[in-house]
Amino acid sequence: MPQLTFDVGVEEIKALAFQLPPTELIALAEAIQARAETFGMMQLAETAFEEWNEDGEDIYDRQAQAR
Question: Rounded to an integer, what distance in angstroms lies between the CA atom of residue 27 and that of residue 7?
Answer without folding.
Answer: 24
